[in-house]
Amino acid sequence: xxxxxxxxxxxxxxxxxxxxxxxxxxxxxxxxxxxxxxxxxxxxxxxxxxxxxxxxxxxxxxxxxxxxxxxxxxxxxxxxxxxxx
Length: 85
Hints:
Layout: E1 3-4, H1 6-14, H2 23-42, H3 49-60, H4 65-75, E2 82-83
Parallel strand pairs: 1-2
């Protein structure tokens, strides 16, 4: 898996144009992400610390869960050794 430069990732996400979630929505999304993570652990697919940090950045920036995968795919290119680096 690629390394994640969190500061560059945060800057790129912050510069994107999308409708950010309200604090109330983000709180609910945090619970959903925690539940999803727990399910991954049960399935023996524990996210890395970098994965957890990347999703935390997206939640900090108010990214709706429906956009998270497309943001990651937009910043990650196969063959690269870093995301947002």
